[in-house]
Specification:
This protein has 241 residues and is α+β, with helices and mostly antiparallel strands. It has helices at residues 2-18, 30-45, 54-58, 77-85, 123-126, 149-153, 161-177, 181-194, 209-223, 228-238, and strands at residues 49-53, 67-72, 92-95, 103-106, 112-118, 130-133. The chain has 2 domains: 2-153, Beta Polymerase, domain 2; 161-238, no CATH class. A 6-stranded mixed β-sheet has the order 3-4-5-2-1-6.
């Protein structure tokens, strides 16, 4: 009888730690669903807490929406390798500057993932979020957050400015296709300012998002060595205009 109670207690503790909270997600595409299922299984097998943020958590995602995730727990080289390639090799990778050190993975099937790997989560971060996996050993609620940028840079080398500008272009296009027009135009202005650091200052715009963003991309493509896969990624997005 004591052994039965022990097993029952262990099961309750496991269920309490590992419970999937609020797992009612409206997926805009099957690709979004496939990615969430893949990373959920991975985090579960590695006992990493997993929190979904952004439009998917709010139920407002479109087929072009990012997947915003926070991961809590100890990660090593092998885990980072698997996290980056869990859905195949991404076409583009980057670390954000504002906010700092979010890992961006852009895949060629309209899936873009923001992975925020850290040691704790704040109360503000928990607002409008879905806790998919929760482990008491690493689900730490604390306003004092820390990230290991040097560790991540072992995998995501510092990118040149033109590459970072392409990342901004991608973000702007995704926002535009998600009907977030004001945000997309604000990003377009930021992109135009960034062009000065690339010594591109002779462009003439007509203040139409679709025309200007393709015009800028084509100029960067002509000036720098843009990978064929990145070209294909953007051409596919531009075809949605």
């Amino acid at each position: 009888m004591d052994e039965v109670r022990k097993i029952g207690t262990q099961f309750k503790n496991y269920f309490k730690e590992n419970i999937l909270f609020n797992f009612e997600i409206t997926y805009p595409t099957q690709e979004h669903k496939n990615y969430i299922e893949a990373i959920y299984k991975f985090c579960k097998s590695n006992r990493l807490s997993l929190i979904l943020k952004g439009s998917l958590a709010k139920g407002t995602a479109t087929k072009f929406s990012d997947i915003d995730l926070i991961i809590l727990g100890e990660v090593d080289n092998f885990i980072i390798d698997d996290l980056i390639t869990i859905y195949g090799n991404p076409v583009m990778t980057n670390l954000t500057e504002n906010p700092k050190d979010i890992l961006i993975l852009v895949h060629n099937n309209n899936i873009t993932v923001d992975l925020d790997i850290r040691n704790a989560i704040s109360e503000d971060d928990l607002k409008d979020s879905l806790v998919l996996l929760k482990y008491s050993t690493n689900f730490i609620v604390d306003k004092n957050l820390s990230k290991n940028r040097a560790f991540l840079l072992n995998y995501i080398l510092e990118k040149p400015n033109w590459y970072k500008t392409l990342r901004l272009i991608h973000r702007a296009v995704i926002k535009y296709l998600s009907n977030k027009i004001d945000t997309s135009y604000n990003l377009l202005e930021e992109i135009k300012e960034n062009l000065f650091s690339l010594h591109i200052n002779d462009l003439e715009y007509n203040n139409n998002f679709e025309d200007d963003i393709q015009y800028i991309f084509n100029r960067i493509n002509a000036e720098f060595e843009v990978d064929d896969k990145i070209n294909a990624l953007f051409n596919n997005l531009f075809s949605k205009f």
